[in-house]
Amino acid sequence: MYETEFWDADKLFHERLKGGDTDGAKRALHQMTQFYPQLNDNDLAGNKAIMHHALALDKVIVNFNIAYFVPYAMRLADYDWSGESHNGSIVPSLGQRITNRLMRGIAEQPDTYIKAVMPFFRKALQHNPSNKDNQRNLAQLYVRVRLRSQAISIYKQLLRRYHDSYLYSELAELLDDPKERIALFSQAIVHQPKEAYNMANRARLAELLQMPEPTRAVFEINKSIFARKKSKQQIPANVERIGRILADYTPVTEAEEQLFYQKLKPLADKVINS
Predict the structure, then answer these.
(1) Taking the model in full, what pTM does it have?
(2) Which of 70, 85, 208, 209 keeps 20 to 30 A from 59, CA to CA?
(3) What pLDDT sits at residue 107?
């Protein structure tokens, strides 16, 4: 009965989004959700369209409420959980992309959000239990509910297989021993070739090193500040404060700091394999 209206709204969504009218695109998506209950959607094409559009708006609208679309995500077909090969690499499935977005920053989300997304995350774990992103999401969920030891265990398992910079830094944040944290943040820096993504890692390492090894700390904080200025980002107050405290120290050289990272690798490996 409402098939024509639904797909007209779908067409309008594409036109509005392509033209940069995000408010118009959002209204068109709302119309689709209003027509959907009366839509004959046996092949789930309409449901899939709604989820694709929700992900598209989430990329361009700050604080877009993508959790509202969890009931639609729950209806994804099995084939929507299969990744596709593109140019020699695997593109994450629609289901996995939704999961990654819903679980982003889960450790800081309120209880109401956790309750809303948990049914879908359980489904994601059923479809891809060993997926790296799902395991990371599970670890962050454990952090959110204060099960830190379980989160630490998952991060260690992941780091035995993968060497992503963010895995090292996220594990470092969960540990108490300063030496172990320094070792892990060092490896996070080593495994991140793009300096723009190392700003936070270097600032955290500088914070840990400022008392025991201030010449290394000033090297790290200077790198962090330089990268932020280069990318025209505002310098956080805590980073600026550390920079002022360490301003009178002469930093070590790049070669000396690289050697420092190498010497810390065995400790990082010991933590991961413990």
Answers:
(1) 0.78
(2) 85
(3) 78
